[in-house]
Amino acid sequence: MLQQVNGHSSGSDAQGGGSLRKDLQKFLSGEAPLHQLDDLTKVNPVTLETVLRCLQARYAADTFYTNAGCTLVALNPFKPIPQLYSTALMREYHAAPQPQKLKPHIFTVGEQTYRNVKSLIEPVNQSIIVSGESGAGKTWTSRCLMKFYAVVAASPTSWESHKIAERIEQRILNSNPVMEAFGNACTLRNNNSSRFGKFIQLQLNRAQQMTGAAVQTYLLEKTRVACQASSERNFHIFYQVLAGLLHLGNIRFADSEDEAQPCQLMGDAKCEDRVGACVSGFDHTPREQGTPHLEKG
Ligand SMILES: Nc1ncnc2c1ncn2[C@@H]1O[C@H](COP(=O)(O)OP(=O)(O)OP(=O)(O)O)[C@@H](O)[C@H]1O
Ligand SMILES: [Mg+2]
User: Which domains does the chain have, with CATH numbers?
Assistant: First the structure.
């Protein structure tokens, strides 16, 4: 199909190619601005060019979610957009009679899945697959979904239920720095790239309130321990351990009269500047907020 768009086809295909080109021109110069197309199934003709042009127009208009039938396409804005993930917006999608009529959003997917569980007498497990290339925003999206469920999968009237949901979300998010230390690394595409797959299970009780969670990891990229591509790094943990060790090496203890008492640190033991200088030679890439930072250990 794409060959025809580019005009490379010959023979009887050429006629079809000509009409496709006309359709393409008509679509691209249509009255409705491209960024208003919130579902890629409305794109006509469906070619790589029209789909990409539509997504590009939406990206330029700061619209980062687009439906593609029952699939949601998320574009990485590469900048913080707090109002797109506010608690107020979560509640709006949760309370909407038909969330799919609102603008495409990851909260629509979250809410639809939640309602699927709620509406069934014998609930069926629901799964959300977040996939994409490295740096696309999968980890970010999973975090958004967990935050969403912590807000909606709690009784609106029970303070205790809210606390439980919040605590479960917090525990999962708090386990991230540890898991990411051992499983994430700086790559050319993503400073904090997950080098393993994650299956996160959220458990609900019969009243559809969150009661527990489990995280399973799989397919860790073990070969990274032994070798990394040029300008890429090993797992964060190795740099963190090294920075820990360098800190310890710089600590000096005061002589103690009584060995049964805890050691006292010497006054000049605060040596972060020196450690920073020692280890910064390993750090060749710009850091982002939230990425383990060598100097801080
Ligand atoms: N919706 C978003 N809003 C703002 N920033 C985002 C969003 N999604 C992703 N980002 C930014 O893009 C970076 C990369 O995203 P993320 O780590 O989620 O990618 P990934 O798909 O998990 O990549 P990998 O497969 O390498 O682990 C994040 O650190 C964040 O800065
Ligand atoms: Mg990731």
Answer: 1-63 (no CATH), 69-221 (3.40.850.10), 235-296 (no CATH)
User: Which of 190, 194, 220, 293, when mutated, tests ligand 1's pocket best, judged by the most ligand atoms within 8 Å of its CB?
Assistant: 190
Q: Which residues line ligand 1 (CB under 6 A)?
A: 76-78, 80-81, 132, 134-140, 190, 192-194, 288
DSSP string, 74-127: E---SS--GGGG-HHHHHHHHH-SSGGGS---HHHHHHHHHHHHHH-SS-----
pLDDT tens readout for residues 146-159:
999 988 987 767 77
Q: Which residue's alpha carbon is nearest to atom 25 within ligand 1?
A: 134
pLDDT score of 3 more than 60: no
pLDDT in tens, 33-70: 888 999 999 888 888 988 999 999 999 999 999 999 99
pLDDT digits (tens, 9 = 90+) for 221-254: 999 999 999 999 999 999 999 998 998 888 888 8
| 103 annotated ligand-binding residue | no
